[in-house]
């Protein structure tokens, strides 16, 4: 088993949105997202982050996959109450992507039922795994702190971009 570690170069690159940044209040961003969803009819919607997941659910946009860590801006929050078919728990320390998290996301996205992955650690970088393994024409939605939300439309090009991010991460094996 190995773990991918965030490098300082990649940290700088990932400060920029990986997809379409929708600025505004929660209400405005959800209204705009709903319009995009109605127009493009994504195959799946994947939400990464507690605030985004909660806002999607409250606005009737039920993600196929929610990836949460029960924290918002590093502060503990109550778990999101949504009916899901399965819940998985994975370990993923801050600044990393573990192979456990990668393989869980890969397997979950092959299924057609609603799932929640609860992360012990931090879920931010798992956006990359979600883009890598989601079917093309899916949306991966995550929060951009103090700005709004980011909607990543999954395409071959976006998958290749994310694969390059992963290749640039430092890798270490656990014994």
Topology, please?
Layout: E1 2-5, H1 8-14, E2 20-23, H2 26-40, E3 45-48, H3 50-58, E4 65-68, E5 71-72, E6 75-76, E7 86-92, E8 96-98, H4 99-108, E9 115-121, H5 126-133, E10 139-144, E11 148-153, H6 156-168, E12 170-173
Parallel strand pairs: 3-4, 3-10, 4-9, 7-9
Antiparallel strand pairs: 1-8, 1-12, 2-11, 5-6, 10-11
How would you write the strand order of the largest sheet?
2-11-10-3-4-9-7
Number of strands: 12
Number of helices: 6
Q: Roughly how many Å apart are the termini?
A: 8 Å
Question: N-to-C SSE series?
Answer: EHEHEHEEEEEHEHEEHE
- List low-pLDDT spans: none
Main sheet makeup: 7 strands, mixed
Report the sheet-strand fraction. Answer: 25-35%
Classification by helices and strands: alpha/beta
Arithmetic mean of pLDDT: 92
Shape: globular
The share of residues in helices is 25-40%
**Rg over C-alpha atoms, rounded to the nearest angstrom:** 15 Å
Fold and architecture overview:
The protein has helices at 8-14, 26-40, 50-58, 99-108, 126-133, 156-168, and strands spanning 2-5, 20-23, 45-48, 65-68, 71-72, 75-76, 86-92, 96-98, 115-121, 139-144, 148-153, 170-173. It is globular, with a radius of gyration of 15 Å. Helices cover 35% and strands 30% of the residues. The chain is an alpha/beta fold and 175 residues long. The strands form three sheets. Strands 2-11-10-3-4-9-7 form a seven-stranded mixed β-sheet, with helices on both faces.
Brief characterization of the structure:
This protein has helices at residues 8-14, 26-40, 50-58, 99-108, 126-133, 156-168, and strands at 2-5, 20-23, 45-48, 65-68, 71-72, 75-76, 86-92, 96-98, 115-121, 139-144, 148-153, 170-173. The protein is an alpha/beta fold and 175 residues long.
